[in-house]
Write a structure and sequence with these properties.
Helices cover about 35% and strands about 20% of the residues. It has 9 helices and 9 strands. The strands form 2 sheets. It has a 7-stranded mixed beta sheet. Strands 6-7 form a two-stranded antiparallel sheet. It is globular and about 40 Å long.
Length: about 200
């Protein structure tokens, strides 16, 4: 029986499909036990700041190892600054429990979203919690994409954003992880929930 010979166009199509499949596997799925720094290598976040602060810092970014190394961190991700559930419920649930997190030995409570650091700064000021919660922008979505925590919210005119989630991370290792089924839900990712899990 003669073996089939692939035409050049069919071969190119197969190679292209394989590349796409491999690329889709290049991202880690965040789970308990994941080293968040290793799962998102060479990724940095941008601390919330004014435009002037950005210019004076030469638009510096913060490597993940500087955020997580030798620290106990509660981090929560959300679809976007100035959006409904994020502003009315998600951030406030952490703001009102800051003292309780500190009492449990948490070094920092961090909010991250696929926004630029200037929008995150304005939002933190509006919510009056910039001093208690550290806000970081994931301006290009690379952090969330690396952790397989992105979601397409084009239907809400938001584009690619973060899922709604929370995690307790010790020295870079995820100890607790909560991810909402859909970004509009607010059932498992709030401050009160993760406080009981630490």
């Amino acid at each position: 029986m003669a073996s089939p010979i692939l035409k050049p166009t069919a071969m190119k199509s197969m190679v292209s499909t394989l590349r796409i499949a491999l690329a889709s596997r290049a991202y880690a799925s965040l789970s308990v036990g994941t080293d968040i720094v290793s799962a998102a290598p060479d990724v940095s976040l941008q601390k919330a700041r004014s435009w002037e602060e950005g210019v004076s810092s030469k638009f510096s970014t913060t490597p993940l190892k500087d955020i997580f190394k030798d620290k106990k961190i509660v981090i929560f991700g959300l679809p976007g600054a100035f959006t409904g559930v994020c502003s009315a419920q998600h951030v406030p649930s952490y703001k009102k429990n800051l003292d309780k997190f500190k009492a449990k030995g948490v070094d920092s409570v961090i909010c991250v979203a696929v926004n630029d650091p200037y929008v995150m700064n304005g939002w933190a000021k509006k919510l009056e919690c910039k001093d208690g919660i550290e806000f970081y922008g994931d301006f290009d979505g690379k952090f969330h994409k690396s952790l397989d925590m992105s979601v397409d919210l084009t239907s809400a005119l938001l584009g690619t954003r973060s899922k709604r989630w929370s995690a307790y991370v010790v020295n870079g290792e995820v100890k607790v992880l909560n991810v909402e089924k859909v970004p509009s839900d607010f059932e498992v990712s709030g401050g009160e929930v993760i406080l009981e899990q630490i």
